[in-house]
TrEMBL record:
Keywords: ATP-binding, Kinase, Nucleotide-binding, Serine/threonine-protein kinase, Transferase
Lineage: Bacteria, Bacillati, Actinomycetota, Actinomycetes, Kitasatosporales
SUPFAM superfamilies hit by this protein: ATPase domain of HSP90 chaperone/DNA topoisomerase II/histidine kinase
Name assigned to this protein: ATP-binding protein
Pfam family, one: HATPase_c_2
Composition bias, Low complexity: 151-168
Organism, scientific name: Streptomyces klenkii
Amino acid sequence: MISRPNKHCTVELQALPPRIGQVRRIVSAQLRYWNLDPLIDPAALCVTELLTNVHQHAEPDKRCTVEIDLVLDRLTVSVRDHDPRLPRLADADAGSTHGRGLALIAAVSDSWGVQERHDGGKVVWFSLPVPERAAGGRQTRDDRTTVTLEQPAPALPPLEEAAFEQPAVLDRSPVRSTVPG
């Protein structure tokens, strides 16, 4: 029997420009690992748009979670943030520059949507169909991956000169070994 168990990957991050690039690479690597190479470009493009929206618009903070779910023949990618305001598609006649990313997601993906969350945040998601040639492989395990991208570690204070004033003294005495014999 050919089966495709559920697969899941979660990435938690601050939606800052360097992190967005990292998540795009993580999504690409995860899809490559799942043998879904045909979905890499559209998924990476759409997740970049969603994370850019969080970076540009989300309040009170830029914390968010990206989830990638593969269930049977459908890949769904969602971005959850803490901002209760729902995104809107651009009005093509109004010439607005806001909402064009969502229009791009709507054009590239099979479906997309927004869900309000009980905690006041929201989830914006898109889905892509798995091509038949990628769906045909036999999978034997249920993959679950979680990645947390933390802020860079704070810079260490400079070392004091005093730490280097005394040269190290090496013990050059011969090494004695006793081997039972």
